[in-house]
Amino acid sequence: MAYNKVINATQRTFERTMTYDMYTDPKVLEKEMDLIFSKSWQLVGHVSQVEKAGAFFTADVMGEPIIVIRGTDEVLRAFYNVCPHRATKLEKNEAGKKKILQCMYHGWTFKTDGSLNRAPNFRGEDAACVQDACLRPVRMEVLESLIFVNLDDNATPLAESYGDFFDQLSKFEFLSELKRTHRKTRIIKANWKAFIDNYLECDHCHIAHPSFIDTLDMKDYQITMCENYSIQGTVVKPDKQYGEVDLNEAEMQGGTFFWLWPNLMLTIYPGPGNMASIEMIPIDHETTLAVYTYYFREDSLEKLSQEEKDLMTFAEEVRAEDIELVELEQIGFRSRAFNKGRYASSEQAIVQFHEMVLEALDE
After folding, report:
1. What are the Rieske domain coordinates in residue numbering (predicted)?
2. Which of 32, 52, 30, 48 has its CA nearest to residue 40?
């Protein structure tokens, strides 16, 4: 489904543009956290992390502690990782496997379905007061093996939130074979939107990404805006090799790059079946936590082939080049020289993103 709110590419004047204070004002981020992040689907994990009964992992979603656990009944659930007794963070470990979850403060225990197992300091008549105490559930959905949560209990279902995106993703048949292989983080000294802007255009690629340009055919590079997401990509140049992989014979013939509202990017590079997710998580109005997660058929870096390691090296090189750009951009955002930029006709995906931000904050 095409995005119908973006002004035609031939028009050079837009009703409104994103002014630079949107990248530097802490009050803007406060509104974004309330009106955007607390109401949008956020990627937290992959089903390969919770395949067995009792397996769990914890996450932080916009300041909220979350636990995702596979119950002893094999059902996958998500809860706020908070004890209902005295609000203590329940599970400290990042991942593990348990039949019972226990709070370290007063010893309350909970079953893997979130129901109360035992409250040691409530006995006799007091016990009746806590019979209904349980972990508070979080809205969770799984599509294409990716686990998403939404802090809004009344959120639109995941599949309905992104048009035909998951239909597009399902065309990559190897995705069901992938596992969460590796995760790394990096602090970026820039507003979260700056990296999204960078990702949504490739005019800078010829200057900033020589290896990217050398590998992919930029003459066929296309960016398409869709409902709450965009897709961009191209094909591999003839006879190009990536590491030791002949890209003409590989299972992937071109790079495909998705952006999902508001802060998630999924990249699929040429070569062995792979996917990587990029999450831009605000720390403050000028600092962002970048979370990079790699998905291959193997579950650890040690098991990867040299071809797959070369692909990761390539991806990280491109990302490092982008980070340098957006950190320099953040310096300019604070300058009094200009208060807003200008849109090129090739930057329609940025226009889509900016319009969505402004519309959300106008709510």
Report:
1. 41-149
2. 32
